[in-house]
Design brief:
This protein has 16 helices and two strands. It has a two-stranded antiparallel sheet.
């Protein structure tokens, strides 16, 4: 697949496809603009971005890094899609056409793992024909492969610092807004979880999850990101505080596990190890206290007992179609379970059956192994954001737009940055050999 895309014919077809997409977007904008003039401005910026991308391949991919955090919706004229998905779609098309090739072996492996999952889930698309099922199949591909390609484009072009800085800057805006909202809420005696309302309305689990990814990035602070230790720590504490005020338990647990893995892999010295314990221990104790209180209360409507009931219902529902499941996004169809299972494996099992679940596990475990085998300077950040997502999704939804695309995009940045460093090292070795040969009698 990747070999074909890198061939002359493949690149020509991608170019034609890119033009076709732009035509379709133009028609959509022409339909929506009379009601929403702002979309005309956004489309004009997109065209400008494509022009810049012709000379700077990573321009659009870099520009979309902060927009991946935007979970707001674009609605009107029959359109209902998240801003994050639109940004990722644009970045994916730009990456397919303009990204630096050839792809490195780790990147090829990641894309093949994604292709394996897509192939396995074709069985449920065929067995459960519906528009929603088919659209979600393409959507899942974009959230994984599209995000990887967009991230690769950023890292391979040497723009990893710019991309991650923009991502962290956007996350800091959300975190500071959540902290300010929490302060006002607490001042009124309300200590409930914060559902951020600015810059757009967010569920606490969405806000906690994406802020967790950003906090992990700030704490990992790979050298090629170019942030000083002081700035990174300040950003980390702000972002971690944002996670805490949302009281998103799965996000707190994902952040805690990621910090422990970073400390273990780097062999942190005593001072920084104490900092990890200082953050992780109280956070996990806080989560345990919340869960304990719900169990003691014994309310059947509490999140703990509600999840247990959902797990039981999901397993029983999966048993009706064990091999290929009931279709992607089956909960939107009448006559099925009316909820998305709050667990990654159960969600995939009920949606795609045993076949899909096996491929999903290969995708996630294989991706972690690929990233783990990279030079830790590049691979550690990719490992921990992916691991954090896997931990979070044991207690919440997995296939949820930005919460999937962000970790895969960051992983793509890491793989691209590693490939660029490898190429530069090889050029240096070649140059040194040439100089030695040149001065040898």
């Amino acid at each position: 697949m990747t070999a074909f895309l890198e061939s002359r014919t493949g690149r020509m077809l991608l170019g034609i496809g890119g033009i076709a997409v732009m035509v379709v977007l133009a028609l959509l904008v022409a339909r929506v603009v009379p009601r929403e003039p702002l979309y005309a401005v956004l489309f004009a910026l997109l065209v400008l971005g494509l022009g810049i991308t012709a000379t700077r391949p990573a321009a659009i991919a870099v520009a979309t890094m902060p927009v991946l955090l935007w979970g707001g919706r674009i609605e009107g004229a029959g359109i209902d899609v998240s801003v994050s998905d639109v940004a990722l779609f644009i970045a994916t098309i730009a990456a397919l056409v303009f990204t630096t090739r050839p792809l490195s072996p780790p990147m090829r492996t990641l894309l093949w793992l994604s292709a394996l999952y897509q192939f396995a889930t074709l069985f449920t698309v065929v067995a459960n024909p519906s528009v929603t099922n088919t659209v979600e199949w393409f959507h899942a591909w974009m959230l994984v492969s599209g995000a990887l390609l967009a991230g690769w484009t950023v890292g391979r072009a040497g723009a990893g610092r710019a991309g991650l800085t923009l991502f962290l800057s956007a996350a800091l805006v959300i975190a500071l807004a959540a902290i300010a909202q929490a302060a006002l809420q607490y001042a009124g005696g309300d200590f409930a979880p914060v559902f951020p309302e600015w810059p757009f309305t967010m569920h606490k689990n969405f806000a906690g999850t994406v802020l967790g990814f950003a906090a992990i990035t700030a704490y990992a602070r790979p050298p090629w990101m170019g942030w000083s230790r002081g700035w990174a720590l300040a950003a980390f504490w702000a972002l971690a505080s944002g996670v805490l005020v949302t009281q998103s338990r799965q996000a707190i647990m994902g952040l805690g596990i990621a910090l422990l893995v970073i400390a273990i892999r780097r062999g942190q010295h005593r001072e920084r190890s104490k900092m990890v314990v200082l953050v992780v221990a109280p956070a996990l104790a806080f989560v345990g206290t919340l869960v304990r209180d719900e169990v003691v209360a014994g309310s059947e409507h509490s999140p703990v007992f509600q999840r247990l009931n959902w797990f039981q219902d999901t397993i029983a529902f999966w048993g009706e179609s064990p091999w290929v499941g009931h279709g992607l996004r089956y909960w939107y169809r009448p006559g099925t379970l009316p909820f998305q299972p709050p667990n990654a494996e159960l969600e995939v099992l009920a949606s795609t059956g045993v076949i899909g679940l096996a491929a999903f596990l290969v995708l996630m475990v294989g991706s972690l192994l690929v990233l783990w085998r990279l030079d830790p300077i590049y691979g550690t950040l990719g490992v921990v954001v992916m691991l954090s997502r896997l931990v979070q999704s044991q207690f919440d939804l997995f296939w949820a737009t930005a919460q999937v695309s962000i970790p895969f995009a960051i992983a793509g940045v890491c793989v691209g940055a590693a490939a660029l460093a490898g190429e530069r090292a090889e050029l240096d070795r070649t140059r040194n050999r040439t100089e030695v040969v040149g001065i040898t009698p």
